[in-house]
Specification:
By secondary structure, the protein is of the alpha/beta class. The protein has one domain: Rossmann fold, CATH 3.40.50. It contains seven helices and eleven strands.
């Protein structure tokens, strides 16, 4: 007899357990702490093995910036002295900003092991970068008002469980006139079955869905230790309206909101060509801290 709740779902042979949205700040901290443990496991067992490849990629002057980001942000060398990358993982995207012309980069990530990887990467490259291992909500106050650009995305938003607190961090980090930019999965993607060969709807609550799971899809990093021994991690579906309003409510001025059929990873690998380009797979948002 299956004793799993009826609203659990199975993707890539992993079971995702429905969770109510975080109830308070203690619940947010508990979920973020779980995510730290899960990402530490991945950073050690997968990202650390990619150090040499990551260094070679960046040493060759290559950049991991997505074409949508380049279009929205323009030539970074002409206006961005300092960029702060929130939820930076092991630093490939952060250090790519240097290759795009940013003069100094700062990376923030909750995973101590991701930050260790990022620090090892910048040291191997011999480039100046600053790294902080902390919850994004606890980003050090010493960084307030220092960023020409606050940069995030690429699978970051779903790991947050207090959107208003996150947006407040973005606001306090920016200089007057500074720019915030995010490119991430469109919330609509949560409603789609990634294993199907065409858009197939998942019956979940778009407005309040939250879930937890153990293990990782084989298409990402696979499972390096038994799934039931891995740290439980927590994700949240944030609607596009919730994200935009959280940013706008800080006083940042929204200058661009885009919905794009392109993805930044093979999110729907089995779709036939006839279905591509018809639904949004990513969104981008650019906002500015008004001077004065």
């Amino acid at each position: 007899m299956n004793d799993q709740p009826s609203d659990d779902r199975v993707l890539n042979d992993l079971t995702f357990r429905h969770e109510a949205p975080a109830a308070d700040s203690d619940d947010v901290k508990r979920r973020h702490t779980g995510n730290r443990g899960a990402w530490n496991e991945v950073a050690v067992h997968s990202y650390r093995k990619d150090l040499d490849e990551r260094v070679a990629f960046l040493k060759a002057g290559k950049s991991n910036m997505h074409p949508i980001e380049k279009q929205n942000l323009g030539d970074l060398s002409t206006w961005c002295d300092t960029a702060i990358h929130l939820m930076c993982a092991s630093g490939r995207d952060t250090l790519s900003l240097l290759n795009e012309g940013v003069k100094h980069v700062v990376g923030i990530d909750i995973s101590d092991e991701h930050i260790a990887n990022a620090r090892a990467t910048s040291e191997a490259l011999g480039v100046a970068a600053t790294w902080h291992a902390c919850d994004v909500l606890d980003t050090p106050a010493e960084l307030d008002g220092t960023a020409d650009l606050v940069y995030t995305g690429r699978g970051a938003m779903c790991w947050l469980h207090d959107l208003d607190a996150w947006a407040a961090v973005v606001h306090r980090l920016l200089k007057p006139g500074g720019v915030f930019h995010v490119l991430d999965d469109h919330p609509f993607v949560w409603l789609l079955d990634p294993d199907a060969d065409k858009p197939v709807y998942f019956d979940i609550d778009y407005f309040t869905h939250s879930e937890s799971s153990q293990g990782w899809p084989g298409s990402y990093v696979g499972n390096f230790i038994p799934i039931d021994q891995q740290t439980r991690k927590y994700e949240r579906l944030w609607t596009l309206a919730a994200i935009v309003n959280a940013v706008a409510n800080t006083g940042l001025r929204i200058e661009h909101l885009g919905e794009h059929p392109e993805d930044y990873w093979p999110s729907m690998p089995n779709w036939k060509d006839e279905y591509r380009g018809k639904v949004p797979l990513t969104f981008s948002l650019l906002a500015r801290k008004v001077s004065g």
